[in-house]
Amino acid sequence: MSVKYSVRFIIILFALLLIFSSAAGASDFRAEERLVIAEGEIINDDLYFTGNSITVDGIINGDLIAAGGEIRVNGIINGSLAAAGGSISVNGNITDDIRAAGGTITINGNVGDNALVFGGNFILGRNASINRDLTVGAGSAVIDGTVNRDINGGASSMEMRGTAMGNVTMDIGDNMRILPGARIGGNLEYTAPRPAEIAEDVVSGEIIHREPPDERRDVFGIIGGIIGYLWLLLVGILFLVIAPVVSQRITDNISANPLKNLLWGILFLIVTPILAVILLITIIGIPLGLILMVIYIISLYISRIFVGLWVGQYIFKASEKKTSYRILSFAIGLLIVFIGINLPILGIFIHFIVIVLGLGAIVLTAYGYYKSYKEQKSI
Questions:
Q1: Which ranges does the record mark as transmembrane (predicted)?
Q2: What distance in Å separates the CA atoms of residue 154 and residue 148, rounded to the nearest whole number?
């Protein structure tokens, strides 16, 4: 990974942690296959939802934190929305912020504050409005609505027919089109391999185009990526040889319930450092806090190993085969993961998903072993 994308990933990962920072204090937790707040229903509380399908047609007087396959908000949230899912659609009104990470994110309603979105595809519909700033990271971004302040971020491709009252600052991987009907009240500043297609008289301020640095010159970034891959490969092989049963259990947990893994991975990612800091500021808890931080750092590092193993086994069906074949499938699976997390723009989102998926599987496996130990001890 180049220095540019390494720094960007750290910044965006920190931002994504903020997406779910309120989860630890959520007062109404619900986990079901299908969750619905029906039209006419009013909830006076913060909600924490996880499920395959989540629909809000009613009113929530509080925040909604949701993780699921499909998340649809047609009603009103008098608070903020934090969501992670395959498909996220907001057709209603959010009085505070939206923070979302997903495969496809569509906003057709009104956002009272800022919007922070990261996904494969992002659409801001023609009737949508964001009262303050829009920060976006996407493979494809379509801006047809209104942003009352600035637009910042990056996308492989971007198309704009809507309005930004302030500045637009974007990193573009391929092409950008500012079409007739669009309006930019400030400056348009973008980095792209070629000049954007910009309609006449749509930008009130300056238009600044910068070409991206030649990635071929980033020799150290390429070498660093190869070394990083080889180190993870070595550690993963040690896991497969020394602890094959544990490695397989972690991988099986990813296959069994990926959404559950994502949820627990996100919780572990957020709660663990907070708990460690609390322990570290108490004299008695310093040793435990240090141990917790070491576990946290190691878990972050090895989380990618188990996702690579899962990808390899999914492709080659190698879970029941001998160790040498599992090592080969792991090497290929890990390579696929490394390629994915190093993709421009989308790699940020993929890296986040890989980390939380692996973390969740580690946590659930550890809990499974703990339960087995407790049951054996009680016999």
A1: 219-242, 262-284, 290-311, 323-343, 349-370
A2: 19
